[in-house]
């Protein structure tokens, strides 16, 4: 097992219990950060070094730093949960570590040993454990990321230095208003990812290129954008920060991982638990025409989005440039809610963890 030795510098200006409670009363999503952060540097020829836990705060970087110009960066997202018995746990952190390294390989960035990735999360969460919310359904969102730090403008080779960091942010639900169906916009004008590109990697560029479509979705009166394939703008891929599932009675279908969509850990977990819930999970291809006609015929009863931040969120209506339709009756469907309860139950410890997905931190 690879472990690094971390230099620990505690924050002399850590927030008081009162200040923390004020934040935790209404954390929103991704707006407030804990008192500490993790930083580990990488240098060509030397590898990972200078691992430390330090007070949360700004970075000082040369304006020529590669990440500012060429977006050589990647990130992860997972949560720490306070379970009913009092333990603080993470959900499948090794799966995030493995995806981090698949993203790193695509972005020509160094891989971080999986154990060090998990060790860094443990150290941050243990130090900032008072920031893990006690409110039902709230959690501490963990954001590991890596940036290219070489100050150089050439593009003949990737950066020769990198910084890995982890920050943490107390989180309520991603969508305000609890579990209520979201409306989605079919993006036929823009493309998120094409074969050979970076769709499967969790790199910032994918999200930078998506904002214009998300803004269009909002202008069209929708909550979220649905991405379609690059060639025909016809085959459903995923949403801006979530994967999609389609419920045809007891058949549960999600788009196949083709390299152009993110292999969500929530998606993978749902495929794994579905059979126990009496469902038949499968990966396949869904066109927007099939989506519309199966909703209209009543064959497709529910659609939901899933992801770390979004958990399991029903989709209630669909709109595109030349079409629009409703999914189900506008209320969260029973299959969606059953899957959500099972998943959340495992994460918060009121359902058995038979797959060793729960990683106890403290
Ligand atoms: N798809 C995209 C584009 C995402 O950003 C996310 C969020 O991480 C997901 C899917 C869901 O992935 P996960 O379940 O691992 O959070
Ligand atoms: C996540 O669920 O972790 C995401 O990455 C979604 C979004 C906040 C980017």
Automatic annotation (TrEMBL):
It comes from the Bacteria. Pathway: Amino-acid biosynthesis; L-isoleucine biosynthesis; L-isoleucine from 2-oxobutanoate: step 4/4; Amino-acid biosynthesis; L-valine biosynthesis; L-valine from pyruvate: step 4/4; Amino-acid biosynthesis; L-leucine biosynthesis; L-leucine from 3-methyl-2-oxobutanoate: step 4/4. InterPro entries: Aminotrans_IV, Aminotrans_IV_CS, Aminotransferase-like, B_amino_transII, BCAT-like_C, BCAT-like_N, BCAT_family. Gene3D superfamilies: 3.30.470.10, D-amino Acid Aminotransferase, subunit A, domain 2 (3.20.10.10). It holds the Pfam family Aminotran_4. Keywords: Amino-acid biosynthesis, Aminotransferase, Branched-chain amino acid biosynthesis, Pyridoxal phosphate, Transferase. Its EC number is 2.6.1.42. NCBIfam families: ilvE_II, PRK13357.1. Belongs to the class-IV pyridoxal-phosphate-dependent aminotransferase family. This is Branched-chain-amino-acid aminotransferase. It comes from Sphaerimonospora thailandensis.
């Amino acid at each position: 097992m690879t472990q690094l030795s971390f230099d620990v510098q505690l924050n002399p200006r850590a927030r008081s219990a009162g200040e923390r409670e004020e934040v935790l009363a209404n954390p929103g999503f991704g707006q407030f950060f804990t008192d500490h952060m993790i930083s580990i540097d990488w240098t060509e020829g030397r590898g990972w070094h200078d691992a430390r836990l330090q007070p949360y705060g700004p970075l000082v970087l040369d304006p020529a730093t590669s990440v500012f110009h060429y977006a050589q960066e990647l990130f992860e997202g997972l949560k720490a949960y306070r379970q009913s018995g009092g333990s603080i746990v993470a959900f499948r952190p090794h799966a995030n570590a493995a995806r981090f390294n698949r993203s790193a390989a695509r972005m020509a960035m160094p891989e971080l040993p999986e154990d060090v990735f998990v060790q860094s999360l443990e150290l941050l969460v243990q130090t900032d454990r008072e920031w893990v919310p006690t409110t039902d359904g709230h959690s501490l969102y963990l954001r590991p990321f890596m940036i290219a730090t070489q100050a150089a403008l050439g593009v003949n080779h990737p950066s020769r230095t990198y910084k890995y960091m982890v920050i943490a942010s107390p989180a309520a639900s991603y969508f305000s208003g609890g579990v209520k169906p979201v409306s989605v916009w079919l993006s036929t004008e823009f493309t998120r990812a094409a074969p050979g590109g970076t769709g499967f990697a969790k790199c910032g560029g994918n999200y930078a290129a998506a904002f214009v479509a998300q803004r269009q979705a909002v202008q069209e009166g929708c909550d979220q954008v649905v991405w379609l394939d690059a060639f025909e703008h016809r085959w459903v891929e995923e949403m801006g920060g979530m994967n999609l599932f389609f419920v045809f009675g007891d058949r549960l279908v999600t788009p196949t991982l083709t390299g152009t969509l993110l292999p969500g850990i929530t998606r993978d977990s749902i495929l794994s638990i579905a059979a126990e819930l009496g469902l038949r999970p499968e990966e396949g291809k869904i066109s927007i025409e099939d989506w519309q006609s199966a909703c209209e015929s009543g064959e497709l009863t529910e659609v939901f989005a899933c992801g770390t931040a979004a958990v399991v969120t029903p989709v209630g209506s669909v709109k595109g440039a030349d079409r629009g339709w409703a999914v189900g009756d506008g209320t969260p469907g029973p299959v969606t809610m059953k899957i959500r309860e099972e998943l959340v139950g495992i994460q918060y410890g009121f359902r058995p963890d038979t797959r060793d997905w729960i990683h106890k931190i403290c």
